[in-house]
Write a structure and sequence with these properties.
The chain has about 200 residues and is α/β, with parallel strands linked by helices. Helices cover about 30% and strands about 20% of the residues. The chain has helices at about 20-30, 45-55, 95-100, 120-130, 140-150, 180-190, 190-195; strands at about 35-40, 60-65, 80-85, 105-115, 155-160, 195-205. The chain has a six-stranded mixed beta sheet, with helices on both faces.
Amino acid sequence: MRGTVEVRSSARGRARPGELSPALAGLLETFVPAGSLCLNVGPGDRRDLRAWLAGHRCLQVEVAPRQAAVLAFEDGSFDAALLIGGLDQLEDVARAAAELRRVLRPGGVLVVSAANGRYWRSRLERVARGGGPPPGAISPGALRQLLLEGGFSLVGVEGQDGAFIRDLPLAGRLWRRCGSSQYRAAERLFPALLGSQVGAFAIRV
């Protein structure tokens, strides 16, 4: 399964401070059932993610990204694994993907979210200022390939949270609305160009 994935979300713009983005929340609601035992790999300051997990009665074990390449858990220990940000903190990305698959039970899911290094706004900034993509950024295609090489069989990747007027350098200061329904449809067709974030699910079969 190598297409994009639809997530349940009625509004997919930027989150308010302290909240998950609607797109990420929709991804979690779609693939992480209430009461799941979750391995949370990522920065330790994600209060928004902790609040979501607590609200859905999910138990979680937190580990630092640098530990993800060698996880001290038995095979099939978790219902879900979460890698929300922190890609740039992984010491060995490919090995971490394989380890996350190992500790998931059959049918378990890995949910990943990262900045999209090919987002149109990022491309404009690189043209104007030079330099490369921001730390931890990855393209939808590269993330899909990483998860497939990590041993996952069912993978879906999508662009998330992009907008046009909102992310223009000047107009965005006065415009706080999310992208239109037309932008959302285009984002599904061109995730690398139009999604400011990359969201993915990967299921261990």
